[in-house]
Amino acid sequence: KKQVENHEDHDYKIGDIVESLFKDKESVNKDKKQDKNKQLIIYKKDIITFVIIFIIACITLIGFFPMHYATDTYNIINIGYEEYMMNNSLKDGRIIMGILVFIANLFNMPIEIWIPILLVLAVIISCISVIILKNIILSYKPAKNKWVEIIVLLISYCTIFNFMYLENLYFAECAVMALSILAYMLSARNVVKKNYAKAILWAILGVVSYQGNIGVIAVMTVLFTFLENTGNKKFVQNIILDIIKTVVIMLLAAVTNFIVIKIICALTGMTGDRTQSMSGIINNLKYIYYNYTRVIENTGGMLKSGEFIFLLSIVSISAIILFISKSKEPAENLLELIWIIVVAIAASFISSAMSLSGFNSARIRFTIGMLIGVIFIFMYCKSKLFEKTQVFEIVFSFLVILYVLINMYTYFSVTVQHKNTNEFEKIEANMIENAIEEYEKENSIAVQKICIIKKSEGNHKLETSRNSCVPTYIATRCEWGITGALQYYEGRELIKTDGNCLENQEFTLSGKQYKCIGDTLYINVSVY
User: Fold this and answer.
1) Residue 514 three-state SS
2) For residue 22, which of 37, 174, 349, 415 sits 20 to 30 Å off, Cα-Cα?
3) How sure is the predictor about 464, in pLDDT bands with cuts at 50, 70 and 90?
4) In angstroms, rounded to a whole number, what is the distance separating the alpha carbons of residues 256 and 262?
């Protein structure tokens, strides 16, 4: 009896265990299916979000579509793809751009097709950056409802598509500029997550794409490490280590790019790259010290003078009030806020230490443009915002939406102004060509050369243009745009030359913007 009972009891236990095992397998499978379903939902949501912000970005860039002509685009037309690839891409260590120009040259792509393709590619990459940044923010502080998720998306959008970034999208290099920002952001993310090999590779990809925005690594690392180490006992230690590692990775990327430039110059026989000696770097740093306030105030003409400082002050004051009233560590958060502002401003001048090229332009000041967006991210993640619907949540949402609208309006306004500038360039190129043809008929001489002199000031943009920035520069009044503009619109190919003193003086005394003397067109420009 006892043996039978024990046997039956034993069978029951085995059956129970087997049944429980099957149940565990089923639950594991269900969990896997649920995880896959969740991932699919997230992917679908990201795809829908991507489509929406892509459409919005394209609408705000309406003045750049379907085709627009930057001053540098005329330069490409003038010198050709091959020379542009060698002197403006490979010589500067921008290998990715060199590849894109090589493809255009290989297939003899018309400039009217190549530029829009690069712009669409840049917008696609930028929208991907927005999605990735949004997901990173939500990993630190998940959204409690749809409205909060929309606010986080808007913050991500204005951080990437900030007012300074418009000038990046103006150039043919827009695609590699967009890629560099994505790469620098991912490098910073991997520094904080201690994936150093990936961080180095992303940083290198960034510098061989475009070096001008390398400061993005510094700003994003500072932001991510503050968020990552919140509440950590080794908070200060981890932050200091992350910053040191970031500096090392940036130096490694810069040295790698320097080596790439030297190798390319050695193989091709090119000289005169933009790398400088230590004395040149010291002189550049002095220039930065005496002129950085002007850059912050003017913002490359993308906003009216002083508007950025005004906006930054409002957002910073709001952040201070928020942290004092709705955060666990107000003093700590305020110190971090100051650190973020200082790093973002300083990081925008990193590339200027190596070269002062484009010092007053917005294209290398991305970290200043992204600063307000970064502060919004910091405010959202480091406070008790949206735990309850109160005044702070309403004010914060209002500030985010207002700033997004300011950025969108800036994009729309400046691109339309740029389109008007293109139309004027066509008219002025025709006027210059008519003057040349009339001169040739009267004097029975062919004008084959062009001598460009900087004489005039203040007429580099249309009187109707509200913004005085690179996208509103008139190419026919820029040293690097006039020759290409004449070639593109009028088919007039001229060889650049230096005029002798007598002819130069005669032109200067004439008081004209352009004049033909001998076989040379003398023309004065505003931007040299």
Assistant:
1) strand
2) 37
3) very high
4) 10
